[in-house]
Amino acid sequence: MGKTWAVFFAVNMIAMAALCFAAPAMGMWMPEGVSTHAHDVDFLFDVILWITAFFFFLTEAILVVFLWKYGCGCKEAPATGVPGFLKPIAPLIDTPHKVEMAWTIVPAAILLYIAFAQIGTWANVKYQSRRQQFLGEDKTPVTIEVSARQFEWRMRYPSAERFREWLKNPNDSEVKKDIDAFPRNPHADDVHVVNELHVFGEPVKGPDMDEWKGNPVLVYLSTRDVLHSFNLPQFRVKQDAVPGKTIPVWFVPTKPNTVKIESGSSTMWLDGRRDAKGEPDRMLIWDIACAELCGWGHWRMIGRVYVHRTQDDFLEWLEQAGKSEHGRTAMTR
Amino acid sequence: MSVGHPPTTAAPAHHEPSFLGKYIFSTDHKIIGMQFLFTSIIFLGLGGILALLVRIQLAWPHAEIPILREWFVDNGGRMTESFYNMLFSMHATVMIFFVIIPFLTGAFGNFTIPLMIGAPDMAFPKLNMMSYWFMWPAFVLILASFYAEGGAPAAGWTSYPTLSSITMPAGEGLHSPAAPNSGHGQIFWLLSLTCVGISSMMGSVNYITTIINMRAPGMTLYRMPMTIWAMFITAILQAFALPVLTVALIYQSLDKSIGTTFFLPDGLTFGNWSAGPGGGQTLLWQHLFWFYSHPAVYIMILPAMGMVSDIISTFARRPLFGYRAMIYSIAGIAGLGFIVWGHHMFQSGMDPRLGTGFMIATIMIALPSAVKVFNWLGTVYRGDIQFTTAMLFALSFVALFIIGGLSGIFMAATPVDIYIHDTYFIVGHIHYVLFTSSLMGIFGAIYYWFPKMFGRFMNEFWGKVHFALTFVFANGVFFPMHILGTAGMRRRIPDLTATAFESPLLTLNQVMTISAILLGLTQLIFLANFLLSLFLGKQTTERNPWHSNTLEWSAPTPPPHGNFDVPPVVYRGPYEYGAVPNRTEDYLPQTLKFDGPVPAASGH
Ligand code: HEM
Ligand SMILES: [Cu+2]
Ligand SMILES: [Cu+2]
């Protein structure tokens, strides 16, 4: 009996572990991270994954071996020996006090390591006090007010003109004040867009190859009705929008996904693309997928992130969006 | 029988009550336990059906489902989004407040506590009866909410304001501008849970008093079985946490009925309807709710841990490894359990610096959980395992709780939680701790105590079939949830084809749904086994069929009103299993006076 059940448990556990190993290959794993947060978050995820995987295999293997050995109904034999695979630590096992100490202190140390390893990243992503430092003192973030409602994301940008001024004087204290006051100070020439978050970066010459550097993004998040959650899975960003509060959110993109396409008299910006000629790529479509239940339309409260390849592309888009009446730009689905 | 004391004819002074008094308005803890048991099984069926509807919608979001098609002719034969939200909200509500908690504290708390401490009944039998009967208004209200205008609540089992709580003034019919289901249905929900809370509170003061005051002579605290320790600590948790939930429920009821604004800030606007002045805080609800509901998740597992410890020790024929460490780790989990509620709110807009503190406390709570797992493994070590159905369920508790505990560490890590919060990863975690741990423990406990409760055995063969299929299909539906969550799939959505990152997950969801349907069908085997065994199961009057040490096995089977024919006296701890010189049996019941050497209880 014991052997049958040992095998039964083992087969199930192995099947589950196998699913974990197979899933990334089947395209069911974390999507490629495209912000500077992603690098740190994914690293911490992997650290925890390897540690927990180790303890999963260890404990399940011990269970299965014990079922196999001590479930045989052959009373005499097992009561004496330490099973082969535990021989190296036999003296420890035969002193229960020591083994109890060991299996308390070792996991405690590992858990403490896990806990303290998180603190820095968490602070960079969320602590207000780290915001400036994280975004870079001499950079002007793309500043956007995102106001959620059932079941839409409404975005408000400074006008292209005003934003150009900010870009020119990133260290000017008046500019900094203006950015801080942005959520409280709507201007008549602000640009309103629905369900589209446009940000940008700039190609830079690297030592051996061309790189691309994202410009920091600062979002002031609020809602006028119920809770929503500003969830950008590819950017590893998630923050609930809370009625009555305005919560700053920041990140730096590391990859563009939007190209400018000119056809005849009109200009369009399309996401999901590496370049103007290429086919659209599903992996380059980055949804803003509301993650907090907000009512019947919650599942389809979806926006998209457009990361422009250059600052000029972005500014050109901003200018055009300012002229469009219905707050939607050309490439809305 | 080694346990057998000669039965005395001098039965305790209990007269034979009428049918109504015996089974309906009973003050006998065993009958009350069975009442909780039967109602929990019925609600388990209801909760299961709701879950299957959720799964079907997720797997085939655009299909017309046979039967359901008729209900939704207006919606092209497809389930509405509000209906879907109602399904998962009510599934969780039913499973948590009407299945797991009543099963553990109501059914097994009632049945085991007096019997295992050697008492004739609870300290307050009438209060005990009231605690069951206060569940009935809760049952009626929660079922009535399905027929309320707008339907049953659809704001999640967590009922976060403002979605759940914003209501137009009474003059306008108490409807919600935010969601059709957040009107009358939500009010029923609030009242129903208030009744559940009152019921639990009556139970918990009773359990605490009984365990402190009514132990048999010789039953010192450190001779109590783990089941009793777990019930004791759970009752304390309940007594301290419940008032906070009750307050929160009352605040939300007031917000919804007489226009207070505990959870409503200024300036709320829905379409072109604007709420009046607010001044409240939405996050206040989350703090109050989780201050109860995090301890509540331990209320939903500690008793199962206790029962599983007893079952494993009995059928491994080994002393429980590290008995004291087991007690301290339960106490540790309970204590830490009060300072970790914020881990549900990492992304909620709570000050992130608080998140850091909550994270450290939460990660450290995995330590006592780990110690318990090692102790269970240590108990099996060098045992002589008997693979009864009860033991198989207990072993699967250990095997699968490991997964639930380990997944907890991912979510406790604040930066990682940014990505997996409100995804299927959480749903996977919940189901590993609540289904494949707590519910597996409950199944084990049913198979284990059934002969004592009803004087009949459940069928072991079908029990094992039930176990094996449940194990396979439960893993089949719940394990892939971790993968879905890692791929970013959000929880609480009826259709995953709206985004680019979720769409590719449809096939896996279909496999899971098939597994879920098979899991549901498997439970019919259990139901048939349970019901048929009640009337046709192999009859027994043997007091101690499993050769177990604890006191309930020294009472007659089934125990009469008043429980013990001979008032038990306790001479030893509950886990002295194993061969000893001068004894043929490999166990030493707690009532046994025996001066020889005893089995080494893990070498202490
Ligand atoms: C090792 C121990 C555990 C740790 C570290 C842990 C950690 C966590 C964390 C951090 C969350 C919040 C995740 C999020 O929403 O982002 C969570 C959710 C949850 N946990 Fe655990 N947990 C543990 C054990 C348990 C146990 C034993 C139970 C129940 C028996 C449980 C039941 C739940 C439930 C029901 C939720 C989800 C609530 C909801 O949002 O609907 N957990 N857990
Ligand atoms: Cu939403
Ligand atoms: Cu919790």
How would you summarize what this structure contains?
The complex is a heterodimer of chains A (333) and B (604). Chain A is an alpha+beta fold and 333 residues long.
Offer a few descriptive terms.
heterodimer, A: 333 residues, alpha+beta, Immunoglobulin-like, 2 domains, 4-stranded mixed β-sheet, 8 helices, 13 strands, elongated, B: 604 residues, binds protoporphyrin IX containing FE
Q: What is the helix content of chain A?
A: 25-40%
Q: What's the domain count of chain A?
A: 2
Largest sheet of chain B: 2 strands, antiparallel
Query: What does the overall shape of chain B look like?
Result: globular
Which sequence of strands runs across the widest sheet of chain A? 3-2-1-6-9
Structural Rg of chain B: 25 Å
Q: What's the tally of helices of chain A? A: 8
Largest interface: A-B, 103 and 105 residues
The amount of beta strand of chain B, in percent, is: under 5%
Beta fraction of chain A: 15-25%
Please give the alpha-carbon distance between the first and last residues of chain B. Answer: 30 Å
Strand order of the largest sheet of chain B: 1-2
CATH class of chain B: Mainly Alpha
CATH architecture of chain B: Up-down Bundle
Decide which structural class fits the backbone of chain A.
alpha+beta
Q: What's the tally of helices of chain B?
A: 17
CATH topology grouping of the largest domain in chain A: Immunoglobulin-like
Order of H and E elements of chain B? HHHHHHHHEEHHHHHHHHH
CATH class term of the largest domain in chain A = Mainly Beta
Question: Would you identify the CATH H-level superfamily of chain B?
Answer: Cytochrome c oxidase-like, subunit I domain
Rg from Cα of chain A: 27 Å
